[in-house]
């Protein structure tokens, strides 16, 4: 059974969802991938509290790597893209092509973009670190302004 909590951040309200295995979602209030059903609200769930703490540390520039169990559901291809996103170092950006190359599918740039856009674990799985080949900021489910702010926070812009 999923449980969730909602808390404020410098970029607006964040919803964090988990099941018994790990985090299943992290969304901004206007995120385009926010599910219709979140489960049971539980502001005292230890994993949700740990996620809230680590996200707060990230915004305070006290954390660059998250140490949380993840349990997002997706296709095998999506999972490979999300795993590749976690390989992008803090403060750096990769292009969609670099992600496609990293997963051994250099011709799958569009599919990488689609999988990136379906990432349910904003911030934790850093899809905001993916940019277009020419260096332009491309879509972000939490909004392009949030993406820009996250990259500035990390010193990538």
TrEMBL record:
Catalytic activity of the protein: a 6-O-methyl-2'-deoxyguanosine in DNA + L-cysteinyl-[protein] = S-methyl-L-cysteinyl-[protein] + a 2'-deoxyguanosine in DNA; a 4-O-methyl-thymidine in DNA + L-cysteinyl-[protein] = a thymidine in DNA + S-methyl-L-cysteinyl-[protein]
Task: Read off the PROSITE patterns from this record.
Answer: MGMT (PS00374)
**What GO biological process terms does the UniProt entry carry, in alphabetical order?**
DNA alkylation repair; methylation
- Tell me which EC number(s) this protein carries: 2.1.1.63
* Location of the protein in the cell: Cytoplasm
Function in brief? Involved in the cellular defense against the biological effects of O6-methylguanine (O6-MeG) and O4-methylthymine (O4-MeT) in DNA. Repairs the methylated nucleobase in DNA by stoichiometrically transferring the methyl group to a cysteine residue in the enzyme. This is a suicide reaction: the enzyme is irreversibly inactivated.
UniProt-recorded name of the protein: Methylated-DNA--protein-cysteine methyltransferase
């Amino acid at each position: 059974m999923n449980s969730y909590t909602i808390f404020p951040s410098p970029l607006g309200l964040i919803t964090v969802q988990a099941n018994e295995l790990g985090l299943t979602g992290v969304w901004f209030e206007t995120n385009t991938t926010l599910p219709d059903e979140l489960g049971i609200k539980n502001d005292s769930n230890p994993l949700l509290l740990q996620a809230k703490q680590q996200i707060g540390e990230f915004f305070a520039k006290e954390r660059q790597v998250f140490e949380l169990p993840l349990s997002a559901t997706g296709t095998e291809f999506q999972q490979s893209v999300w795993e590749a996103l976690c390989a992008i170092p803090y403060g750096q950006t990769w292009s969609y092509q670099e992600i496609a190359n990293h997963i051994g599918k250099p011709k799958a740039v569009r599919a990488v973009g689609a999988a990136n856009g379906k990432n349910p674990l904003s911030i934790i799985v850093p899809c905001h670190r993916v940019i277009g080949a020419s260096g332009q900021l491309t879509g972000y489910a939490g909004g392009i302004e949030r993406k820009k702010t996250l990259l500035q926070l990390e010193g990538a812009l």
